């Protein structure tokens, strides 16, 4: 099992819509709007690194309004 935090920058005025869509994804345990460099932090869990990569590149980054993402994999 791979756990990670994904930070997401969104386009102006899209944060609420993006976080609602992120929350519907099966691998997302929690997603919150935050203040700072990024607009959303999502806590995710995937079966493998390949599944995590698919979640990021084919699901999260495909959501309209998502700009840059950054991923922090939990080590322990």
From TrEMBL:
InterPro entries: Dimeric_a/b-barrel, Tscrpt_reg_AsnC/Lrp_C. Residues 7-75 form the Transcription regulator AsnC/Lrp ligand binding domain. Pfam families: AsnC_trans_reg. Gene3D superfamilies: 3.30.70.920. SUPFAM superfamilies: Dimeric alpha+beta barrel (SSF54909). This is AsnC family transcriptional regulator.
């Amino acid at each position: 099992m791979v756990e990670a935090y994904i930070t997401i920058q969104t386009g102006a005025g899209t944060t609420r819509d993006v976080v609602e869509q992120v929350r519907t994804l099966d691998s997302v345990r929690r997603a919150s709007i935050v203040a700072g460099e990024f607009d959303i932090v999502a806590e995710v869990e995937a079966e493998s690194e390949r599944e995590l990569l698919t979640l990021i590149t084919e699901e999260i980054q495909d959501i309209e309004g998502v700009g840059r993402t950054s991923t922090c994999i939990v080590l322990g």
